[in-house]
Amino acid sequence: MQAIQTIALIIVGIAIGGVAVFLLQMRLKTTATKKAEEESKKVIEDAKKEAEHLKLSAQFDIKNLKDKQKLEFDDRARAKESILEKKEKYLDDRESNLERRANLLTAKQAELSSKETKLLDEEKSITTKTDRLNSLIMEENRKLEKIAGMTEEEAKQQLFHNLEEKVKDESKFFIRTEIEKAKLEAEREARKIVSTAIERCATEHIVESAVAQVALPSDEMKGRIIGREGRNIKCFETLTGTDLLIDDTPGVAFISSMDPIRREIAKMSLERLLTDGRIHPARIEELVKTVEEEFPGIVQKIGEETIMEMKVSTVHPELVKLLGYLKFRTSYGQNVLIHSKEVANLAYLMATELELPDAKIARRAGLLHDIGKALSQEYEGTHQKIGADIAKRYGETDLVVNAIEAHHRDIPATSIIAVLVEAADSISGARPGARRETFEAYVERLEKLESIVTSFDGVGRAYAIQAGREVRVMVEPEKISDESAFELANSLARKIEQEMKYPGEIKVTVIRETRAVTRAK
Q1: Where does the pLDDT of residue 299 fall: very low under 50, low under 70, confident under 90, or very high at 90 and above?
Q2: Which of 70, 154, 276, 363, CA to CA, is 20 to 30 A from 51?
Q3: Which pLDDT does position 38 carry in this prediction?
Q4: How many helices (DSSP H) and strands (DSSP E) are in the chain?
Q5: Residue pLDDT, tens place only, 130-141
Q6: CATH number of 442-511
Q7: Strands (E), 280-332
Q8: Beta strand 252-256 with 334-335: parallel, antiparallel or unpaired?
Q9: Which has the closest alpha carbon to 331: 465, 448, 435?
Q10: pLDDT at 200 > cutoff 50
Q11: Is 197's pLDDT higher than 50?
Q12: What is the DSSP string of 455-488?
């Protein structure tokens, strides 16, 4: 019985639990539904708010867009209005100009018409006066014929006869006087003709160029001269102080420099490199150094050949060497050695024509007259004074020394030899195409550029290249560091700007190089 009760209680409990669970589920469903409805209402409200916000934002954007378009339209309208105003003003000005020109043309036309009328009146007046003058002349001729008792034709014949007799007498006197004058001036005129012939004699003219030409065995050699990344050509240009120009010209390279000595050394070095065939920086340095060491001997040989050619004897060896250096000097673009030989020949020929006993001395003085130009860059003073001092120091006579110093009239000439040297110098320099008047000033500018650069401490050598548009500065690595090299370049540029006047600009390139050399044994 008790078990049944227990079972019944359990069943009742289970039923009650089921009902409770059912009621709980129903309540949960009701709560979820309410919550979902609340959330949906909230979403709808948020959506309405967002829609209202988007609507307001869209209205604001539309309003801004309208304002912006209106501003742009107003700007375009104002711009077009300004253009139209300018065109209208231009047309008004043009119309005014046309009206003014039309008025001027009308005034000129009226003036021309007035002048034409005046000229016609003057022409009529002149015609009237001419007719009246002719009438007066005819009347006067009739009166003269009546007074003289001869017709006009008879008077002409008589006048011609008298003039013929007078002209015969005067011509006889004139011929006799001219013959006597011709005899007196014959010798002087002959000398003048000879001098003119000497002035026009065929001589060699050389106007120095800043470029030397070197023939290449083949165009393939151009690449070898340039080297990898240009190291060979850069080394060559640095060592010689010149520009090596390799262009499209077949079989030719050009060396550019305003210094003839550097240009000649560079030319000889390049020719030897081409012959040797080994083209690299070390070999380039070796050959350039060799040529520089041999160059004084080459100059001495040129001087000796000049002395033999001009038949001048007993010249001091130092003067012979200076003569050789004149081959590499120019004056207004004219080669000084060629000029000196020409002056020597002209002075000798003129002295011979004048039958002077010192004709050979005239040739000697003419050859040495510009010897000072070989040293004019190293000493202060004019080349005449320097040349006279050098000639006197090395045993030349007072006659030659005076001719050298007086050939530009710095001092009075003490002999006719000095006058002849001066005249020969003028003849040689005045030949058409012999000189360029601006060359000397140009060289002075390059020399000043180099002297400014070398005045700085730590600068070893300086080369003005590119026709003076660039200066390359070789510095001593012990005194100038890599950092101070840039500072030095700026200082050089400022110094050049302050002390020189030049066209365009000058590039300053400072080169610092450190080498470590050893030998393996």
Answers
A1: confident
A2: 70
A3: 78
A4: 14, 8
A5: 888 888 877 777
A6: 3.30.300.20
A7: 330-331
A8: unpaired
A9: 435
A10: no
A11: no
A12: TSTTEEEEEEEGGGTEEEEEE-TTT--HHHHHHH
CB 385 within 8 A of CB 313: no
CA distance linking residue 513 with residue 509, whole number of Å: 13
Residues 6+ apart with CB under 8 A from 447: 377
Average pLDDT, the chain: 79
Over residues 144-188, the pLDDT tens digits come to: 666 766 666 766 676 666 666 666 656 655 655 665 666 566 556
DSSP 173-214: HHHHHHHHHHHHHHHHHHHHHHHHHHHT------B--SEEEE
Domain 207-303 has what CATH class?
alpha beta
The average pLDDT across 381-408 equals: 87
Which tokens in the block code for residue 355?
A: 């039958």
Give the chain's end-to-end CA distance (angstroms, integer). Answer: 131
At 45, list the tokens.
């409200």
Say whether domain 311-437 belongs to CATH 3.40.50.10610.
no
Instruction: Residue 282: name the closest of 482, 517, 465 by CA.
Output: 517
Q: Return the domain boundaries, the chain.
A: 1-109, 150-200, 207-303, 311-437, 442-511
Residue corresponding to tokens 């320099």: 429
> For residue 491, what pLDDT is reported?
87
As a whole number of angstroms, the longest Cα–Cα distance in the chain is 214
Distance CA 510, CA 489 (A): 6
3-state helix, strand, coil in the chain (%, to 5): 75, 5, 20
Examine domains 207-303 and 311-437 and report if their fold is the same. Answer: no
Angle made by CA atoms 372, 330, 274, in degrees to the nearest 5: 120
Which range, 56-70, 296-310, 327-341, has the best average confidence (pLDDT)? 296-310
Radius of gyration of the chain (CA): 53
